Amino acid sequence: MAENPTNPTGPHEAAGGSEPEPNPKVSGPVKSSVGIHAIEESMRYSMAEMGPKRSLQTLLTMNHVDGFDCPSCAWGDPDPDHRKMAEFCENGAKAVAWEATRKRVDAAFFAEHSIAELRERDGHWLESQGRLTQPMHLAPGATHYAPISWHDALALTAEHLRGMADPNRALFYTSGRTSNEAAFLYQLLARRLGTNNLPDCSNMCHESSGAALTETIGVGKGTVTFDDITDHADLIIIVGQNPGTCHPRMLTALEQAKQRGARIIAANPLPEAGLGRFHNPQTARGLVGPGTKLADRYLPVRINGDMALFAGLNRALIDREDAQPGSALDHDFIDRYCDGFQAAEAAWRALDWSRIETMSGLSRRLIENCAADVLKADSIIVCWAMGLTQHRNAVATIREIVNFLLLRGNIGRPGAGPAPIRGHSNVQGDRTMGIWEQMPDAFLDKVRDEFGFDPPRAHGLDTVDSIRAMRDGKADVFIGLGGNFASATPDTEVTEAALANCALTVNIATKLNRSHLCHGTESLLLPCLGRTERDLQASGEQFVTVEDTMAMVHSSRGRLLPGSPHLRSEVAIIADLGQALFGDDLGWRAMRDDYAVIRRHIEHVVPGFHAFEQRVRQPGGFMLPRGPHDSRTFPTSTGKARLTVNPPTAVVAPPGHLLLATVRSHDQFNTTVYGLDDRYRGIKGGRRVVFLNKDDLCDLHLHEGDLVDLISVHPDGERRADGFRAVGYPAPRGCAVAYYPETNVLVALDSTAETSNTPTTKSIVIRVEPAGRRADLSV
After folding, report:
1. How far apart are CA 325 and CA 310, in angstroms?
2. Is the per-residue pLDDT at 593 higher than 90?
3. Residue 618 covered by a domain
4. Whole-angstrom Cα distance, residue 102 to residue 375?
5. 560 and 438 inside one domain
6. Domain extent for 550
């Protein structure tokens, strides 16, 4: 029976707000983060959505050994003995409250609201309506979703999949929130059908990291542990990342490093509050004292200037080595563990400093001052996120960061290494489990040996290529395991039209979002359990596992009663679909009834998961092996870490144009919008704002508060996003920033990173034009 299924604020009232105000209030950015305001916001949102009882049941068990893993970011956890009672951040609390809300979207809701009406609502309103409660079906030509039984929904999906002319006309998309068990079962289902079409959210975020790291050090993950940051690093460089909003618990780890004496350098186009002064809400110094200043040095790099920054740092190290041999480079490490040094060294010597300065937006003096910090540090970590990965030259940029680390031996020792900070809670685990369109033959051979069928070997479609396939009429069925595909992907109008070309779209989800309204000829909504809810199957209560950004695998067990008696777990839905398609040929029923059966299969297929069941039951779980971290072994094509040549490049906007990066607001996680404020950047009551350097505003003959339109410029034509408020902000000249998903419409489908095919949402050439009227700016 559903636990407290009523909606205390009215059946369809938005949580914590309403439709966006036409004129958001602007007060300017702040220079400190968290503190009492974060506590107030966490409690306000949690109480409004969950009430006191459910708030206690969830927040005090989140990220604890016997509790559930935060459904928000993939930041790692301290050792079990060092966890706080409240081991969560503001956005983690909001993510839990968003999922564990008492509001419900039931059959009556869909009977009241047509698809056309719901399309007029924004994503914030849609997701604020509450949890989906039962399977819903949109028949061909229908205007409203209507209830359907689980049996009929799965039979309909199986009928469409069996009716395709080719299994490669099916697309199996995955969100990063999916558990290891569900992800493994999902890739098994797709490959049993006969396709490697497994697009996922990693294609749009850290695919560039995986490509660069696999090429240079042999593994597509970072090599840093939680303790490396807190206990060992001398210098931590944070580039293209906003921890205070995207990974707030990281601030506590950075504070520990600072208190130990580590230095922090922040390189980012915008000065973010999270790397200013941190007010730790669990310490007296944080609540009533001065807090802790985190960043010792701030580098205001221009958008897409990071590659030039690290090329400049590497050139500075070469110059220092020339001046004082043995002072800058670790020649023993380079000789023993690396190849490619001579070619890379020659390329750095040939660099022109004036070009580095122009592309990075930083002076030579500032870069060399940063290099002086590097020379004082024995162990260095470089952390990054999507500010690096979503550019045309993203893979080359990350290769240059690896070069920087290799030159001083900063891989494979305590406190050193590359640290791509993953955004979603199990996006790294999904890839480990086989959610990738290009899994190597060794993995596929293991699947064959374990299950007795030969998986397809031809590479499948990633996210961008899946959109192209739907656009071109080459896909019939789209299945989304979580996520918000239509809002998260680029070229919004193209993507929505592409989804409409499918015969069937199926979304396995907890809450209503825009993707469910951008449907094929026929559509299904299949409601699933959330991370916070108990999962009871035939063998008893189940737990699932996840992998965090530090390659730690640990268990997660929900505590709340399911939000509706009709909800099924993701594992159960996938297993039931497998049985509807193939009978019980692979033991689908046994895997549904007892997730330990899935984990035994994972043991046999996925490297590093020996004794999976026993090790994951240990407090805190276990760490997966990574050769570069564990033993300085590098499983690359040459057997060594690879120093590479990466001629610096940067996107240059023509005269009268700017370079736009899309970012999250503080009240947002990916495409989920918790509220309409961004208090760190001084925005209240709206999201359609664009942050511009005040001198650029002047050059464009604009004033703060003007209503403007954003027009992106691509070889295949222009795209528009209309009706944004111009906000003066300390951004580098020529750079602009606005929130996604509102600006995803500006990203051309064919504008992607080299090698990784990741959309270039962080470097979009735009024009900013007056919308034709002025508005007062409330200050």
Report:
1. 21
2. yes
3. no
4. 54
5. yes
6. 157-204+429-606
Residues 393-412, mean pLDDT to the nearest whole number: 98
pLDDT at 554: 96
Whole-number Å distance between alpha carbons of 403 and 382? 12
Contact predicate 96/71, CB 8 Å: yes
Q: Does the predicted model carry a pTM greater than 0.90?
A: yes
pLDDT in tens, 159-207: 999 999 999 999 999 998 899 999 999 999 999 999 999 999 999 999 9
pLDDT at 778 exceeding the cut of 50:
no
Q: Are residues 213 and 350 in the same domain?
A: yes
Tell me which of 718 and 4 has the higher pLDDT. 718
> Alpha helices of 218-361 — where are they, by DSSP H?
226-227, 243-246, 250-260, 284-287, 306-323, 331-337, 341-349, 353-360
One-character DSSP codes across 152-212: HHHHHHHHHHHT-SSGGGEEEEE-TTS-HHHHHHHHHHHHHHT-----BGGGGTTHHHHHH
CATH assignment at residue 727:
2.40.40.20
* CA-wise closest residue to 690 among 734, 657, 713, 723: 723
Q: What is the CATH number of the domain that holds 405?
A: 3.40.228.10
Q: What does the radius of gyration of the chain's CA atoms come to, in whole angstroms?
A: 25
503 and 546 belong to one structural domain? yes
* Dist CA 25 CA 197 (whole Å): 45
Label residue 22 by pLDDT band (50, 70, 90).
low
3-state secondary structure 545-578: EEECCCCEEEEECCCECCCCCCCECHHHHHHHHH
CATH code at position 184: 3.40.50.740
In the block, tokens 């935060």 appear at 70
Burial class (CB in 10 A: 0-12, 13-18, 19+), 757: middle
DSSP, res 712:
E
Residue at a domain's end among 401, 420, 439: 420
374, 392, 420: which is the final residue of a domain?
A: 420
CA distance 407 to 338: 9
**Same domain for 590 and 683:** no
- The answer on 571 and 491 residing in a single domain is yes
DSSP-assigned letter for residue 731: P
H helix count then E strand count, the chain:
30, 33
The answer to whether residues 324 and 372 belong to one domain is: yes
∠ CA 753-758-760, nearest 5°, is 65
Where do we find the tokens 């944004």?
Answer: 724
The reply to whether 370 and 461 lie within a common domain is no
Residue 225 has pLDDT above 80, yes or no: yes
Taking a C-beta distance cutoff of 8 angstroms, is the pair 212, 398 a contact? yes
Tokens of 502: 């499918």
Residue 252: what residue type?
Answer: T
Which residue's entry shows tokens 């900063």?
410
Does some domain include residue 49? no
Q: Which two tokens stand for residue 678?
A: 């961004």
User: How many distinct structural domains can be found in the chain?
Assistant: 3
Tell me, yes or no, whether 113 lies in a domain.
no
The Cα–Cα gap between 535 and 567 comes to: 10
Beta carbons within 8 Å of 513's beta carbon, 6+ residues apart: 123, 126, 127, 484, 487, 671
CB of 106 closer than 8 Å to CB of 133: yes
Residue 109 inside a domain? The answer is no
